[in-house]
């Protein structure tokens, strides 16, 4: 996985002022609104193609407030930015992060708040792994409505850092200071890789179970049957970590309930939102990844195999409906 605690001595890190957001879905809109609302930051959205034109025309609406955040194509960048936050669906990553050279200098820090375990490695392979920090976001109940409207009642908690944060790097310290100014709740754990796997476990359980049952957070807060499926999916991730040297246990599932139980009961996971909107899901990097790793490490993953197949069928039904109206 990407990320290094060692920096070139010649890098001149400065207070973060210029922020670029790639991806204007629920998560990207949240971060864009926080930085745009805070004095001292120059915030832009980075987009291409039709998405660029839509954002320029419609802007963003977050919790009922309209945001006319500047939108630029990466080729139009005049100078490098200090911080890039990548908040995309996995299947958009490859195209979206190509051609960002004008936005990036040695001191630019890149944070991916994407789902899964692979985006940091991919971004780092293009622009240098030393520029990339690991990050996850939990317990933010942001819901995307239509093409440009996002609502949330809980801003969640955002974990970021390098693989080992026993001693904090300058990159991490400057991002911490920026998050403090933007009033974004964060934590930098010592072992970021373990936290990445914890979030992966949550996504595998919550996203997939909610999608197959079409259930909001409230269902998981009250239904033992819903919790049972969620936990079965999560325990298969824990079984994988047992053979992969990552220290997850059943206690980590209990820790998740502390976050789950304060979410809006009407809130929905990103995968359920995708199913309801007829969009492609990220099941490949959740159940698909678990099944793949299970075969590699000889770990049984029947719950994830079943949910993977169900969600693929749901996706196909959405695709068939689209074709009927073409």
Oligomer: single chain
Q: How many strands, what sense, and barrel or not for the largest sheet? A: 8 strands, mixed
Give helix % range. Answer: 40-55%
Nearest-angstrom radius of gyration? 19 Å
**What is the terminal separation in angstroms?**
42 Å
What is the β-strand count? 12
Indicate the proportion of strand residues. Answer: 15-25%
> How does the helix and strand content classify structurally?
alpha/beta
Give the overall average pLDDT: 92
Describe the structure concisely for a colleague.
The chain is of the alpha/beta class.
3D architecture notes:
The chain has 12 helices and 12 strands. With 326 residues, it is α/β, with parallel strands linked by helices. The chain folds into 2 domains: 18-190, NAD(P)-binding Rossmann-like Domain (Rossmann fold); 194-324, N-(1-d-carboxylethyl)-l-norvaline Dehydrogenase, domain 2 (Orthogonal Bundle). An 8-stranded mixed beta sheet has the order 5-2-1-6-7-8-11-12. A 4-stranded mixed beta sheet has the order 4-3-10-9, covered by helices on one side. The longest helix is centred in the last third of the chain and has 23 residues, at 302-324. The radius of gyration is 19 Å and the shape is globular. Residues 322-326 have low confidence and may be disordered.
SSE inventory with pairings:
Blueprint: E1 18-22, H1 26-36, E2 42-46, H2 49-58, E3 60-62, E4 65-67, E5 71-72, E6 83-86, H3 93-96, E7 109-112, H4 119-127, E8 132-140, E9 143-145, E10 149-151, E11 155-161, H5 170-181, E12 186-187, H6 192-213, H7 217-222, H8 224-244, H9 250-260, H10 270-277, H11 287-297, H12 302-324
Helix pairs in contact: 6-8, 6-10, 6-12, 8-11, 11-12
